[in-house]
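Sequence design from tokenized structure. All designs in this work follow the same two-part layout: the structure record, then the generated sequence. An example of the structure record is given first.
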């Protein structure tokens, strides 16, 4: 039996790299996609890599078409794309809100649109999006980020309703904070003390895409350190 093909979107980031490793350990064939070609190279030649901008419908559709043409039809999509910014409601600008929504919500929608046709024909597939604890619990000083992640969390529930009849499972993880190298460089130690490692979040994602989680649909899974 051939290995299932898993697409990891945002694979060049700290969480994305950990997810690539976790899924390969689980014997999935991983396709890593990121807009940063240099960040993809760190994953090594044994991981199939596609450099693409997934923030638009056209970019996501083109990237998923390449996955099928170059590797095969994906049965797993893990979306780790995301961006955060600090600031309360009085600091939000139209540009900032647009950035948060486009990357935290838009990419999830466009990736889902792009991958579903590849899963629909065999009638099975698994999608895991990355939301955040701040999207379901009020958090001071992260207004635009929290609202965009709340939309991602609710999108996951809506997608479960829409896609479950097609045999596609959709779930999301809700990290509080992830101790990536980028976050370690800018966040104070007292805040990082509550963070989960990228590997811990990746482990939760690997479980959600596994056969052991076949009965888990529409779940918002906390990973909070």
């Amino acid at each position: 039996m051939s290995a299932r093909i898993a697409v990891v979107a945002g694979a060049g980031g700290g969480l994305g790299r950990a997810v690539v490793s976790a899924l390969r350990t689980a014997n999935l064939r991983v396709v890593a996609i990121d807009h940063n070609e240099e960040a993809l190279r760190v994953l090594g030649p044994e991981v199939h890599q596609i450099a693409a901008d997934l923030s638009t419908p056209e970019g996501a559709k083109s990237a998923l078409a390449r996955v099928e043409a170059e590797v095969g039809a994906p049965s797993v999509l893990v979306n780790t794309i995301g961006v955060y910014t600090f600031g309360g409601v009085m600091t939000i600008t139209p540009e900032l809100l647009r950035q948060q929504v486009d990357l935290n919500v838009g990419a999830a929608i466009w990736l889902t649109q792009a991958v579903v046709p590849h899963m629909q024909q065999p009638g099975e597939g698994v999608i895991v999006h990355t939301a955040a604890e701040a999207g379901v619990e009020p958090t001071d000083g992260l207004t635009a980020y929290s609202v965009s992640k709340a939309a991602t969390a609710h999108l996951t529930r809506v997608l479960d309703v829409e896609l479950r009849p097609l045999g596609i499972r959709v779930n999301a993880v809700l990290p509080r904070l992830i101790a990536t190298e980028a976050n370690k460089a800018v966040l104070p130690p007292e805040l990082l003390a509550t963070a989960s490692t990228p590997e811990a979040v990746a482990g939760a994602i690997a479980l959600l895409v596994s056969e052991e989680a076949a009965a888990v649909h529409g779940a918002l899974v906390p990973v909070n350190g």
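The chain has a mean pLDDT of 95. We note this feature because it recurs in several other targets discussed in the main text.
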